Amino acid sequence: MRIIIVGAGSVGRYMAAQLSKSGHEITLIDNDNKAIGRARLDESITVMFGDACELDTLARAGAVNADVVAAVTGDDEDNLVISLLAKQEFGVPRVVGRVNNPNNEWMFNEMWGVDVSVSTPHLLTALVEEAVNVGSFVRILTFEHGRTQLSEVTLAEGSPAVGRQIAELNLPRETTVVAIVRDGHVVTPTPELNLLVADEVLLLIGGDGEEAVRRALVTSRES
């Protein structure tokens, strides 16, 4: 794939390096000479100096042929402008926007050209909660502008799911159990798998299925 990453800070450089190793064609853009200098250490990545909030810069980077544009600068306003230009002016199929301030997350939506938004503070908070809150419902990531979420529940004693098969949980139709982590190992979530105390259940939940999932997996005291 042809991927344009805007923002050559530590996040952008790491993304560029990893995606380049996977065989993707990467162009990395920044308007900071120091950041550009550090990025040029990797010869497999095309590095451009310029302001991606301007049409000319995105055009020179080949946005019209890009499969993905990821706006990952440290400025939310810039990320929104870049996302909007990529989608509306160049028709980029997939636009990813980095959210630096959680209070701005509501703006990273289809109106601004963002297909997927990633809020680092929210993600880190969810991962901390997942590590310490046995028996609690934790949202890890959201997709489709909040319509779908990846969530996790570590089953506590007293959970209505303990001792039952996955098929017996009566989860909503738009909910899928994607993995079970048991004793540090990933277990395939087959319908007949019996759930145990301390199982980490990861689910993709669509629509308004969260409350039903809570009832199925979380103790009444926590739900």
SSE topology:
Layout: E1 2-6, H1 10-21, E2 25-30, H2 33-39, E3 46-49, H3 55-60, E4 68-71, H4 76-88, E5 94-99, E6 116-119, H5 120-132, E7 137-143, E8 148-154, E9 175-182, E10 185-187, E11 200-206, H6 210-217
Report strand %. Answer: 25-35%
Distance linking N and C termini: 43 Å
CATH superfamily of the largest domain: NAD(P)-binding Rossmann-like Domain
Please write the string of helix (H) and strand (E) elements.
EHEHEHEHEEHEEEEEH
Write the CATH architecture name of the largest domain. 3-Layer(aba) Sandwich
Q: Oligomeric state of the chains?
A: single chain
Integer tally of domains: 2
What percentage of residues falls in helices of 4 or more residues?
25-40%
For the largest sheet, list the strands in their spatial order. 3-2-1-4-5-6
Major sheet: 6 strands, parallel
Please state the CA-atom Rg, rounded to the nearest Å: 21 Å
The CATH class of the largest domain turns out to be Alpha Beta
Using the coordinates shown, work out and report the CATH topology of the largest domain.
Rossmann fold
Structural class determined from secondary elements: alpha/beta
* Overall average pLDDT: 88
